[in-house]
Write a structure and sequence with these properties.
The protein is α/β, with parallel strands linked by helices and 428 residues long. It folds into three domains: 8-57 and 110-182 and 273-338, FAD/NAD(P)-binding domain (3-Layer(bba) Sandwich); 184-271, Alpha-Beta Plaits (2-Layer Sandwich), CATH 3.30.70; 353-417, no CATH class. Helix content is 41%, strand content 21%. The protein contains 16 helices and 19 strands. Strand 5 (86-90) and strand 6 form a beta hairpin. The protein is globular and about 70 Å long.
Length: 428
């Protein structure tokens, strides 16, 4: 099962991962002296800016290196709405500016415009873009037939780059052994507080780990002329979003005229927290969110989508389109993501326990006192380092004893008072 001259490769999804895959397929074909057709199916028209993307749209290191070194691209400065200066972490009562090293800049972009840029670059590289929705696929021994609400396409292989679009997930589940990854739900809203308020905000991502039932985390991110607010959890809803907005830690970052109830537009989405089952097979492969291949707990989803798209394209052109070839090459190249999964799950479980039992205030207090734990918190929130590295570098007897004392004092106080613990330190 190899790609031959004249074969067609069909990529379902024209976001950053799908576009990167298309560009790399054509680049690899030229390198090997082959001629192939690359078709990208994308039902959205990004340039019209009519569709909302659940991704907040923050490009974090090393996105510039990935674009330059792998795709020969430079991000146009016109796409950057603001630079991200840093991260501030909030618990129920405390706040902490996270200090660490970012090896490169973080930039906020409008996802629709960034996606339009990437898809246009794929077209310039020679990909054909068709704005149709996939309705069914048939994977046969010698080819794949992709049905759309327009024309049908015969392809040597189909690449799934559709995120967690529910309809396309079901199409792939019906046509292949693929099963979509486990995921958290997200709700996103935007506030437009006006130019004066936006200029008064520093370009810091405000991250919240609060002890609110059903809420795993939330964030407030400045985006040029507006504020993007997102929450995530198993069953988050617009009501939970409203409660999040009304909470004291979040209220401090909302403009006064927005603090009273006003009709808001909400966007519902999902993001994966584990790999998909059967994420590849004979003549099909999935990448990015579709595959569930992203950094656990802390996403860097755009970087992961682009990287996995590149890995899949190289595997296709160099090793063929069989399940065995993908297992031995594509999945191996993704090991920086897959090997970190158990450590990311452990961090997520511990974080959820800390918020549930109102222990996050103490963790922030320890981070303020200990540089080693501060670095761990920064790397966890920024997504700079793998969780395995974070855990290995942070684990120490003295830190373990510090947390043991905090935990013992925390639960003794709760048992004596029969009340949830409250830190004596004010939010800063």
């Amino acid at each position: 099962m190899f790609i031959n001259d004249g074969d067609t490769v069909c990529v379902v999804g024209g976001g950053p991962g799908g576009s990167a895959c298309a560009m790399t397929l054509l680049k690899e074909a030229r390198r090997f002296g082959r001629t192939i057709n690359v078709v990208v199916l994308e039902h959205k028209i990004f340039s019209e800016d009519r569709h909302h993307n659940q991704c907040i749209g923050v490009l974090s290191p090393p996105f510039e290196d990935i674009l330059k070194n792998e795709l020969d691209l430079t991000l146009p400065e016109s796409l950057v709405v603001n630079e991200i200066a840093g991260y501030r972490l909030h618990s129920d009562l405390l706040s902490l500016d996270l200090i660490g090293e970012e090896y490169g800049r973080s930039a906020s972009v409008r996802r629709s415009r960034f996606d339009a840029f990437m898809l246009e670059e794929a077209k310039k590289a020679g990909a054909q873009v068709i704005h149709n929705r996939v309705t069914a696929i048939e994977v046969n021994p010698d080819e794949v037939l992709i049905y759309t609400d327009g024309e049908n396409i015969k392809s040597a292989i189909v690449v799934g780059a559709f995120g967690l679009d529910d309809g396309t997930c079901r199409v792939f589940e019906q046509g292949t052994p693929y099963r979509q990854p486990d995921f958290l739900n997200t709700v996103i809203t935007r506030l437009y507080p006006g130019k004066e308020f936006m200029q008064s905000m520093d370009c810091t991502i405000q991250a919240f780990l609060l002890s609110h039932p059903g809420l795993e985390f939330g964030a407030v991110t400045p985006k040029g002329d507006h504020i993007s607010i997102n929450i995530a959890g198993r069953k988050v809803t617009s009501n939970i979003m409203m409660e999040f907005l009304r909470s004291a830690p979040v209220q401090r970052f909302l403009p006064p005229h927005q603090r009273r109830e006003k009709p808001l537009n909400y966007y519902k989405g999902r993001f994966p927290i584990a790999p998909a089952r059967n994420l590849f097979g004979d003549r099909y492969v999935t990448i990015g969110d579709s595959a569930g291949l992203m950094r656990p707990f802390k996403g860097k989803g755009i970087n992961s989508a682009i990287n996995t798209g590149i890995y899949a394209a190289r595997s296709i052109m160099q090793h063929g389109v069989s399940k065995k070839a993908f297992a031995e090459n594509y999945y191996r190249d993704c090991r920086v993501l897959t090997e970190d999964l158990p450590y990311g799950r452990a961090v997520r479980v511990l974080t959820n326990l800390a918020t549930r039992f109102k222990f996050m205030d103490h963790m922030i207090a320890v981070a303020a006192e200990r540089p080693d734990f501060m670095k761990a918190m920064f790397s966890s929130v920024s997504g700079h380092d793998p969780y395995k590295k974070i855990i290995m570098e942070t684990a120490s007897l003295s830190l373990s004893l510090t947390f043991a004392q905090k935990i013992l004092g925390h639960f003794v106080f709760r048992q004596q008072a029969h009340l949830p613990v409250k830190s004596a330190s004010p939010a800063v």
